[in-house]
Design goal:
By secondary structure, this protein is mainly beta. The chain has helices at residues 2-20, 230-245; strands at residues 25-26, 32-39, 43-52, 58-65, 70-74, 78-79, 84-92, 98-108, 115-125, 128-131, 134-141, 146-154, 162-167, 172-174, 186-193, 199-210, 217-227. The chain folds into two domains: 24-125, Sandwich (Immunoglobulin-like); 128-241, Sandwich (Immunoglobulin-like). The termini are far apart.
């Protein structure tokens, strides 16, 4: 009788223990962090420790981000009791200026916090400030010359040399100054577009390489559309045929 009573008590004890076993996610470094100053265009990253302080396996089902600028990579999606995992959080600063605030949500089987929110902030700074952020060529005409002004300011401590210009958009050009832009100074560059063919939707970009170690490239989007001009088209074809004949 005593053996039966002991066996029943043991079964009840283990049954209660099994029913109360559960995972618990802990963030030893806290749920908030600051990236500090990040140069525009740089990729910042931070490793976050995930610890299971519960009594059952912690299962990470997915990790959500509040912005496409944020990326994540987790070392393990199953963390045993007492073990730790690592979550890599990356932030791409190329489309931001000034203060930023983003969130990352860790979804798990922790019943006490199935969605653990991690917040981070920082400040995107620039040595090279470009305005406007994109150039708009609306209703550009085939064979006609259109000009937009691009302003570049050197906020850095060293002279800024604009080295080279590239773009996959045919007919787009800009003349770069031979002399560097001094600290605190501003320069205006005329960006000239002479399209060779009609295009209903223009969505390209141009890149200027610089001597600044933090911002080695200035990337400016180019938007708009190109309307046809039969006269300009004929002139273009005649020029092409002339080149072929020669």
């Amino acid at each position: 009788m005593k053996n039966i009573t002991f066996l029943l008590a043991t079964l009840v004890f283990f049954g209660v223990s099994l029913s109360t076993a559960q995972p618990k996610l802990e963030l030893p470094g806290g749920s908030k962090f600051n990236l500090g100053s990040v140069y525009r265009g740089a990729m910042a990253e931070r490793h976050i420790t995930l610890r299971n302080v519960g009594t059952d396996t912690l299962i990470i089902s997915r990790v959500d981000v509040s912005c496409g600028c944020t990326g994540t990579m987790i070392s393990h999606d199953r963390i045993a009791p007492g073990d730790t995992g690592s979550l890599l959080i990356t932030f791409n600063s190329k489309n931001f200026r000034g203060a930023v605030h983003k969130t990352v949500t860790v979804n798990s089987n922790d019943p006490s916090q199935p969605q653990a929110v991690i917040q981070f902030e920082g400040t995107v700074v620039e040595d090279v400030v470009t305005t406007p952020e994109y150039l708009w060529f609306q209703d550009a005409e085939v064979g006609a010359r259109s000009t937009r002004m691009l302003t570049i300011k050197n906020e850095g401590k060293e002279p800024l040399l604009l080295k080279s210009f590239t773009s996959e958009l045919r007919g787009l050009s800009v003349s770069l100054p031979a002399e560097p832009v001094q600290p605190g100074s501003t320069i205006q560059l005329p960006v000239v577009y002479t399209p060779a063919a009609a295009n209903p939707v223009l969505a390209e970009r141009m890149t200027i390489t610089t001597s600044n170690p933090h911002q080695s490239e200035i990337v400016v989007a180019v938007y708009g559309n190109v309307r046809s001009q039969p006269g300009a088209k004929e002139e273009t074809h005649q020029q092409t045929d002339s080149k072929i004949l020669h």
